[in-house]
Amino acid sequence: MNATMTTTMTTAMNVEPTFGAQTAPRRPATARTYQRRRAVVGGLLAVVVAVGLVVTHDVLAGSGGEPASAAASRPTPARSTVTAQPGDTLWSIAQAHRGDVSVHRYVDKLVDLNGGASIQAGQQVVLP
Fold first, then answer.
1. Which end of the chain is more exposed for a tag (fewer CB within 10 A), N or C?
2. How do residues 51-99 score in pLDDT, each as one tens digit?
3. Quick check: 107 and 90 in contact, CB under 8 A?
4. pLDDT at residue 125 is higher than 80
């Protein structure tokens, strides 16, 4: 028994620890590899430059297509108003004046323009 125990201990002590998966040796990079890498980097650089040009154009031209430095002096459009009658609500006014816009969107705009959801009889309600 003593011989078996000695052999087992010797075998266990001579095992080298492994700390990860064995990897294959790396192959040296070829000229073709460098060409592919340059093509990828060049493509990415082209995309970055294109995005930069688009952003620069949008900043300078603005979303309206006019240059940012050109101050357009347009007169503010006169808002239409309606006088609220007894029993009127923003919903009833929206249904009467909304046109082809959904009632929900029109009511939301009425609330924004008139400072809240409640109105009084005789109040001038600003229409969008």
1. N
2. 988 888 777 776 655 555 556 667 777 788 999 999 999 899 999 988 8
3. yes
4. yes
The CA-atom distances, in angstroms, between 3 and each of 40, 57, 97, 112 are 64, 85, 104, 94
Look at residues 104, 116, 113 and name the one whose alpha carbon lies nearest to residue 80.
113
Which residues face 81 on adjacent strands? 126
Q: What are φ and ψ of residue 89, in 5° steps?
A: -130, 165
pTM above 0.70, yes or no: no
* Cα distance between residue 60 and residue 71, in whole Å: 13
Q: Where does residue 126 rank: exposed (0-12), middle (13-18), buried (19+ CB within 10 A)?
A: middle
Give the CB-side neighbour count of residue 94, counting CA atoms within 13 A.
Answer: 19
